[in-house]
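User: Structure tokens for both sequences below?

Assistant:
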Amino acid sequence: MFLLVTHLDGYAQAVDTSLSFKGAVLGMSLSDFKVLDVTSVWLKAKDIGVKSKDKEVEFVTPACTDTYRFDALLRVFRVIGVAEPRDGEVICFTASGNDSIYASYGDLSVRHGINSDARYLAGKYARNLYYRFYRGKLYEINMQFSSIDAVDIAESFKQKYGTPTDIGYEEFQNGFGAKWKAPVYRWQNGSRQLSLHIGSGLGPGRDVDDNDLSAYVVYLDTELSGLLPLEKKVVDF
């Protein structure tokens, strides 16, 4: 196992680089992450909801925010289903979908994603990908896949990380009452955890669905995530 020594609040900290994705290591600083894979593209201002005297504006990733009240972020990265950042939390996006936006090249406008290669894991394309930081440290990487792709990803993880530390199961039921279980693989290294949920997409009578996003991969630092403040509950009654 290779350990990289960094510093957090003046103390030496060993960061496990074996559970990393595209160079992003759990526990790394937000400032280091922002210069990890910088990509720039010129976009039509009107396409991403930016008011500008210029027809085109430069959009740079990683794009990070502590709130979703940023129209360009919503349009480019489609953050539907990603929980609102809590106090002290920042969420970053490194890549948009292949068909998320229009990028302009001279007089030619084509469908184009920002840094789309950053969404591939074990040769499979993640339909959603985001990074969560708390107090300036990366504690979670989250991405969504189809169940059929997740099966292949599981085999790649086993080759790279060995036998899972733990295998659990999630139970599902369809509208006709049929029940089935799908595995959840976990690799644990201290407070750092990698989990792969196969999801519900391979249940009985289910065809392969291109829109199936029930599988997901989570890289998580449980020590850092345990410091998060509780979500504020809305009391409207």
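Moving on to the next sequence.
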Amino acid sequence: MTDIFQAIDSATSLEAMLHTIQQIATDQGDYAHVCKARYHLERIKLGLPITISEGPTEVQEQLERAQKEFAAEAAENYKAREDFAHAAPHFFQAKMYQEAITMYLAINTKDSLAQATFLALHYDVDYKLGFDLRIRQGKLGYAFDDLDGLMRHDHFHAEDKQHWAEYLVRAAYTMVVSVLQEKIQKKEGSSPEGKTIPEILQGRALRINESDVNLPFNRIFDYVRKSTDLKIMQMGLDLNECVIMNIFGTMSQQEQTMYLRGKLTGNQEYVDFFIEQAKQKKSKGEHSFNYPARRAIEILTYHQHYAAAVDVAEEFLEHPQYELLEKSGDRDRLLSAYKNSNDPVAYALERAKVL
């Protein structure tokens, strides 16, 4: 085998050295160094100094295209001989992210799966694959952190976050079902019948601690409360009634039960539960942050009882809820709110709608 360093020493210019490296590395199947040598030869061709990265924009763009081409060729050569560990980073360098993910999945180690997950999610390649990989690796809790990170992407919006959050809520529900089945199997010697939490727990006084599944239930319930999917709401209700939480968020478990039942059924008793709490808050002088009143309004609004929701808002909240007033269709009430809040422009715009 040719000694590459002796060959370099025999060359009389940098360009000759790089050509030597390219030739010998190609013969030896060392495509990473072929890629590097070709990159620097391209710089020489474009008239760029070897040690300086800056240059005219159009030249830099041409160099970047060439580098991607060289990296892609190296990746394909590594892939052809099933050297996936070297193929993957070169596909990444070529910005061929789907191909890089495929290589990392083929390697199938803990680290390579983590790389595939990161690329799938944070390079916007395949969100479902990324979240499924989190689940496969037993890191469902991390997936909720991924959601927060994705919100920094310009094209990932709140509705996208809620969509994928609900995907993860379903996965969390499946995980809790599995844990319950294992606990019952261990205790009773046979697996329980049923696929839902209520079916599995029928006749059993069994609950699990949130540390048993290592999931961020406060965040899960936040997404459940925002959902308009009845199945997600029911899952949240089931989870809330079987998981013992160590840290509570803005609602206690009882409050979450009443809230979700209110959204599921629309029964007035659940609205009244929060109105009673709202009265207690009001008696303490709390208006702007009267969360029980807001929960009652959310239940009423979900079931399109807008007039009743406006009544609750006017009784317990400090500031007018203009959007709610618009949904109620009570223009006189809306105009009065604009007048009382000294907003003549909004008042005029509303009046103009019927002129």
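User: Anything stand out in the second?

Assistant: The first strand starts at residue 208 and ends at 209.
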